[in-house]
Design brief:
This protein is of the alpha/beta class. About 25% of the residues lie in helices and about 25% in strands. Strands 3, 4, 5, 8, 9, 16 and 17 form a 7-stranded mixed beta sheet that branches. Helix 8 links the parallel strand 13 (about 240-245) and strand 14. Helix 4 (about 140-150) crosses helix 10 (about 310-320).
């Protein structure tokens, strides 16, 4: 089969490799779409993957081609939860599979979706409703990550709607890449109205407005001071909930300054470097008695009746029929020309939100 193989840092090539042979408990999935994640760029060009050579790509969907253990799955359309838990450690036993202490991961530790076929554990397969496209299904992973952060912040009730006591909260999202925009989309979908966003690209504003955001609630840091913007929006109080989706020290400093007393700061963005805080900034955490939370990956439970599941992936699938996500896709390349998408993201030579690799 054809695959984009990462042989070493900066050395990724379209190569003919052996088609994977599913082991017991696995299915062979023919990949239909695979998204390029922001984390793929440093993995390919800067830090490398845990194991190389490797086929990257962890945001993918496809069709089950072979499955000896469950032949009924053959021909089924599926999304894929990319984290493969050990199911034996303390976190797995508690059902927190996303925090497994000994996990494998498709696309960073094992071969992933920038290929024609992937061997995937049956447990990780997510059946798709007929009205969910392969492109949308390839965005299930980042959408679930966004939902996980909202749930961690305590902003959804048992019916997955805005908490009545929180509807008037000032919510700020800084960083409007895929995760930031999706976080905004799901907050608006849940019923929150005062969702302010901080970005730095015209296309981000365009997508924010397209999903129903108020243009006056968009702060473009090229022209406005974000701290002054947040203070003005909150009557000089600060954000009740602040989602930091960038991962740079200066943005975390800004987030702490912008979060209200007794407010909640949700750290979402992967760190781009070591994090250091000025003494005065650290004091603000203490004096404001802020809650600082981290979020990681998304909750998923591959067992039991799908209708009874309450994990982040099921939440997203349930909402997709009325909440489309494919309009965040700005570029589509085939597997052979995927390097063009990688180059755009590496050099930031064009405005983009989600770049997708489509196999057929």
């Amino acid at each position: 089969m054809k695959a984009q193989v990462l042989y070493g840092i900066g050395n990724i090539k379209l190569t003919n490799v052996d088609e994977p042979v599913p082991r017991k408990g696995e299915a062979l999935v023919r990949v239909m779409c695979c998204g390029i994640c922001g984390s793929d760029i440093p993995r390919i060009y800067k830090s490398g993957a845990h194991n190389m050579p490797i086929i990257p790509g962890h945001e993918f969907s496809g069709v089950v081609e072979k499955c000896k253990d469950k032949p009924a799955l053959v021909g089924k359309r599926v999304g894929v939860f990319p984290l493969i838990p050990c199911r034996e450690c303390s976190q797995c036993r508690a059902g927190h599979y996303e925090m497994c202490e000994n996990y494998d991961y498709l696309g960073s530790r094992s071969d992933g979706g920038f290929a024609e076929y992937v061997a995937v554990p049956i447990w990780n397969l997510v059946p798709l409703p007929d009205d969910v496209s392969f492109i949308e299904a390839a965005m299930l992973e980042p959408m679930s990550v966004a939902v996980h952060s909202i749930k961690r912040a305590g902003l959804l009730d048992k019916k997955n709607k805005a908490l009545p006591a929180c509807r008037e909260r000032t919510i700020v999202i800084c960083g409007l890449g895929t995760i930031g925009l999706l976080t905004c989309r799901f907050l608006l979908d849940a019923g929150y109205e005062s969702v302010y966003v901080i970005g730095n690209k015209d296309i981000q504003k365009e997508k924010y407005i397209l999903m129903g955001g108020n243009p006056e609630y968009f702060c473009d840091v090229r022209y406005k001071d974000p701290i002054a913007f947040v203070m003005s929006a909150s009557n000089n109080r600060g954000a009740d909930n602040y989602f930091e989706c960038v991962g740079r020290p200066e943005n975390v400093e800004q987030a702490i300054k912008c979060t209200a007393p007794l407010g909640t700061l949700m750290l979402v963005g992967n760190p781009a470097s070591d994090m250091e805080l000025k003494k005065d900034t650290y004091w603000k955490i203490l004096r404001k008695q802020m809650t600082v939370l981290g979020t990681w990956n998304s909750s998923y439970d591959g067992r039991g009746d799908r209708k009874k599941k309450t994990d982040d992936w099921q939440y997203v699938i349930d909402r997709l029929s009325s909440l489309k996500a494919d309009n965040l896709v700005t570029h589509v390349f085939d597997l052979e020309h995927m390097s063009k998408g990688l180059d755009i993201m590496k050099r930031k030579s064009e405005d983009y939100v989600k770049i997708m690799v489509k196999m057929v």
